[in-house]
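Annex B. Sample input.
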Amino acid sequence: MAFFTEAIGTLQTLVVALGAGLAVWGGINLLEGYGNDNPGAKSQGIKQLMTGGGVALIGMVLVPLLSDLFG
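Annex B, continued. Sample output.
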């Protein structure tokens, strides 16, 4: 069981880090879109920002529920 607990903790860290990275990248694209007055970059930036937040939220909420599945 210790292996599953450690693997789930590592998975949670990776998913949250991936989501945070995507959100930061989206924020940069969003600011770049506002700086250049480019609606395409603004749209892409907000999509990436929201997706990154969603992925991070999944990592914080749903991934720990896997421990109940295996425990």
